[in-house]
Amino acid sequence: MSDKVRDVVIVGGGPAGLSCALYAARAKLSTLVLDRAPGAGALASTAVIENYPGVSGRIAGSDLLGVMRDQATGFGAEYLKSAVMAVDLVPDTKIFYTSTGTFQGRAAVIATGSLGRHEKIDGEDDFLGRGVSYCVTCDAAFYKDREAAIIGHSEVALEEALFLARFAQLVHLVTPRTRLNGPSDLLEEIAGAPNIVTHVGLKVQRVIGSQSVTGIQVTDTSGMESMLPVDGVFMLLEGSAPITGFLSGALNLRSEGCIDVDCSFTTNMPGVYAVGDVTCLHPKQAIIAAGEGVIAALAIDKFLSGRERVRVDYM
């Protein structure tokens, strides 16, 4: 565990998380952003933005995020590419367990968005911990000289396939889409990796096994079924559900699975805030998410300083 305790630790590097980081860092609060991947969120996957206030013309969502990231780090915020696996939000000093280490913060902000899945694949729960995993960094070494599959199509899935290929004899990258999308450098690495096989247009129907995973049953675009023999399956598919699984029930959720917050985006846990699509309060618009991040940052400044009112700062 890192001995350094930040004032604010933000989980998620989308417009809500980065705007919160910008305002927190500018208020001289030590701020750390833990982001699974720069291209993993909803805004990052948006091809063109042309209605963001203050930005003239058309800009790719990933480029707009890059500007936000540079602004936040320019004021002193730290940005770390790291997947948060679990948290302990009960103590005054919050603890974040990630793929790259353990971090601590006096205040926490959950800004993980809503690209999680509502429904699971048949057999996914049955073989969890027995061949089904959600963390390549955590479990890749278990598949040394074996075959494993990664199910997904995001930039995260591409990166994780390359990481898994360092250990596994053969990596099957399976996506229901008809083509892979992602940064050209990642696509070139995937294409050039001798032990990565890409399967496009395949939908996973169920995970197969007895004591542990032995394969996955898939259907192609014509509806033909087949079985792909593998020893492990990493589920990295996306959906439209709030991403809250790593919280392990620590925060109150509304019936639809969104984090419950008040008008300052404070959760039921003192010192813990949630902003952006993970709250499901507003339409999914980058400018709204950014505004929520700013409101939370002002509330955090008030909370950590013990003031009764938010400090107004228009500049």
Describe what this molecule looks like in 3D.
This protein folds into 2 domains: 5-116 and 240-305, FAD/NAD(P)-binding domain; 132-235, FAD/NAD(P)-binding domain. The relative contact order is 0.18. With 315 residues, it is an alpha/beta fold. Helix 1 runs parallel beside helix 6 (286-305). It has helices at residues 15-26, 61-74, 136-139, 155-164, 184-192, 286-305, and strands at residues 5-11, 31-35, 78-81, 84-88, 94-98, 101-110, 132-133, 147-151, 170-175, 196-200, 203-209, 213-219, 225-229, 232-235, 272-274. Strand 2, helix 2 and strand 3 (78-81) form a beta-alpha-beta unit. The protein starts with a strand and ends in a 10-residue tail after the last helix.
Outline the biggest β-sheet.
Answer: 7 strands, mixed
Low-confidence segments, ≥5 residues, pLDDT <50?
none
Q: Bin the strand percentage.
A: 25-35%
Give the fraction of residues assigned to helices. 10-25%
Q: Quick one: CATH superfamily of the largest domain?
A: FAD/NAD(P)-binding domain
Order of SSEs: EHEHEEEEEHEHEHEEEEEEH
What is the CATH topology of the largest domain? FAD/NAD(P)-binding domain
What structural class do you assign from the helix and strand content? alpha/beta
> How many distinct helices?
6
Oligomer: single chain
Q: Would you tell me the overall average pLDDT?
A: 90
